[in-house]
Predict the 3D structure of the following.
Amino acid sequence: MDPYKYRPSSAYNAPFMTTNAGAPVYNNESALTVGPRGPILLEDYHLVEKIANFTRERMPERIVHARGASAKGFFEVTHDVSNLTCADFLRAPGVQTPVIVRFSTVIHERGSPETIRDPRGFAVKFYTREGNFDIVGNNFPVFFIRDGIQFPDVIHAFKPNPKSHIQEYWRVLDFLSFHPESMLTFAWLFDDVGVPQDYRHMEGFGVHTFTLVNKAGKVTFVKFHWKPTCGVKSMLEEEAIRVGGTNHSHATQDLYESIASGNYPEWKLYIQTLDPADEDKFDFDILDTTQIWPEDLIPLHPVGRLVLNRNIDNFFAENEQLAMNPAHTVPGIHYSDDKMLQARLFAYSDTHRYRIGVNYLQLPVNAPKCAHHNNHYDGCMNFTHRDEEIDYFPSRYDTVRHAEKFPIPAKIIHGKRERCTIPKEDNFTQAGVRYRSWAPDRYKTGL
Ligand code: HEM
């Protein structure tokens, strides 16, 4: 950065130092004391405010995916999918939508090295004209478990031992040995892709089955895939140790410097689609997050491209306060009955209200870029000014009405209340196929 070019950002507009309340500060370097060597006076309001602000600079970090980096750009539709979905941002080739993307590791703390063996988060927020749509995915197409009620357990097993705060693989293996459905994800984690070279050279997957709905209400199951145009690259153990030993932020730095130098990272978006009538034709359950949809049976179709061409302006505002949420969908894209996804629909806004605060969606990075209106308001840190008298619905004095109805899946759901595993478990076939696909030397050594 050129210090002579730097000017304070838009949050401040005075050419001199002030307190938060705007009073001029004529000395920001010496505390107010009794004589040159005496004790500090409590009336040094500026000192107290400065230290009090400083000691509150951190918010709770994310319980998972605490370590991450974000960048901005756009998504452009390249192929017509309007027969599958009425989503406005997918309405025609050429349509562009602004996005912010956050990449992350999963298990360790905010300052942990980016070279560890861990899944990577790949979360994309589309600021569409119909509200925000978030694909909150990972760089693996599958997950260790298939029921959201087990998520706290799998994360606890991977997190450091609560006694020593050291990550220990006996805990991981202990837990996973009770969950044979984790085998395929385990094979991804211990494959080379378990340590991506950086964030630019990795794939992304929505993981869950989602539902597309077109204008006529026709429903199609879908999986989302991001493919990097610069290819997938990973690090072997020794390289990871060397890179992580010299720079614990190498992936954040790579992303930032690539964009700053005009080498914009790009991914192509592909979808796999499935007619619900064919749902039962496979040996596995198509809602099971521990299984892929094999591409030879259900091929990939191109949809669009994602280009990251702008760095964030402030890490705290656009990375730490960023709130990704798989429950954020738009008309034309719906959830599925996948038990992991259903649990996630609750988890994210719940954690955001705790981690960031009830009005987290008012923050610029999280707020929709389209017009929006409802009667949820006030609360801590509300900074909207509502100059209106009607705060209920309906009202003859308020012109705001229901939005136009859009189609949602119409399937009739029935069954008895029960806690159980899905009937069609196939825990090993796909894991075996992946293991045998590895090059023979690796197959022999198991590396
Ligand atoms: C982040 C919960 C499964 C991908 C988070 C966070 C929570 C959470 C609480 C922190 C969010 C924040 O503080 O902003 C859960 C639960 C799950 C689940 C309860 C299972 C029921 C998954 C799965 C994936 C995933 C299967 C991958 C498909 C992510 C990503 C982030 C995240 C990418 C980071 C988002 C960001 O960059 O801000 N998850 N998660 N999670 N989760 Fe999950």
User: Anything to note?
Assistant: The CA atoms of residues 57 and 167 lie 27 Å apart.
